[in-house]
Amino acid sequence: MSEYGFYRKAELEAVVGLSMTQIDRLEGAGKFPKRKPLGDHTNSPVGWLKAEVHEWCRKREAKRHGLEPEGLREYRLSMAGRR
Predict the structure, then answer these.
(1) 7: which strand partners?
(2) For residue 50, how far is the Cα from the chain centroid?
(3) Which residues face 26 on adjacent strands?
(4) Which of 1, 44, 64, 68 could serve as 72's disulfide partner, Cβ 3.0–4.6 Å?
């Protein structure tokens, strides 16, 4: 799966397994990547960067299995030692 380009709505729903209503709620709460305009006009179509969506999916999967994304665990451990 390419990390380059954009997902449009129908593709995005299939990739993340959520409805647009759920995606809109997560996006509004700052818990999902923000949509980007694909043109210069206010009514331009929108898309989501594939790389950002893939990273969100990786983090969600890690959290589901009680794991942390790469590097985050080591960072937290090093910060805990400074207290």
Answers:
(1) 48
(2) 9
(3) none
(4) 68
Cα separation, 75 vs 70, whole angstroms: 10
Reference 72, options 57, 64, 61, 62; nearest CA is: 62
**DSSP annotation of 59:** H
**Tens-place pLDDT, residues 7-28:** 999 999 999 999 999 999 999 9
Distance CA 72, CA 64 (A): 16
State the amino acid at position 10 in one-letter form.
Answer: A
The model's pLDDT over 41-70, given as tens digits with 9 standing for 90+, comes to 989 999 999 999 999 998 888 787 777 666
Map residue 46 onto helix, strand or coil: strand
What CATH number has the domain spanning 6-80?
Answer: 1.10.1660
C-beta of residue 23 within 8 angstroms of C-beta of residue 35: no
Helix (H, G, I), strand (E, B) or coil at 47: strand
Cα 2 from Cα 21, distance rounded (Å): 25
